[in-house]
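QA checklist item 7 of 12: single-chain prediction sanity check.
[x] sequence parsed
[x] length recorded as 179
[x] structure emitted
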Amino acid sequence: SMSVFAAPYAEQGYWRVRQDADGYWTFVDPRGNDVYLRGVEQVVWRGHSTRDGKKPPYRLWNETHYANKAEWADETIGRLKKWGFNTLGSWSDPSLRGRGMGYFVHVGFAMSCFADGEKGDGDLMIKRRGGRYFPNVFSPDWERHCRKLARARLILSVLGDADLIGIYLDGELPWWGEN
């Protein structure tokens, strides 16, 4: 059942949200403190790909300035905390987890359906005006697809982690018109 995604987060010891007496919502850390999230996404050792196919400059710099990826992770977390950040956004390197910062992970349930040039995957995609496709969340196969993808991307393995703030199900979908 989908309750596996929600069950532990209502309890003390995990990130959650709560509403105060004035009706305002806040994030609450695993120790019960109200927190304003300040985060950075895509903090990655490898850097981002370049258009010319060469190794990314950031990765080249990391490889020449750090003895290993663990050293990079230690210094990177220290630097982020010094700058006032307390959260690792989605797509950040898993080696940064477990170092005292909350984090998010990204699954991409619908995005995965676009992997084949938006050709669609059976009835998991709906063809829209202009030849665009959009996920068919009403398909009888949608739940199976999501469970399979969650396992394949190891999302289920992070559910008991007290530093996990949340899971992005998708992002940047072509809601209408151009992608």
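[x] summary fact logged: Confidence is low (pLDDT under 50) at residues 1-10, 116-120.
[ ] second reviewer sign-off
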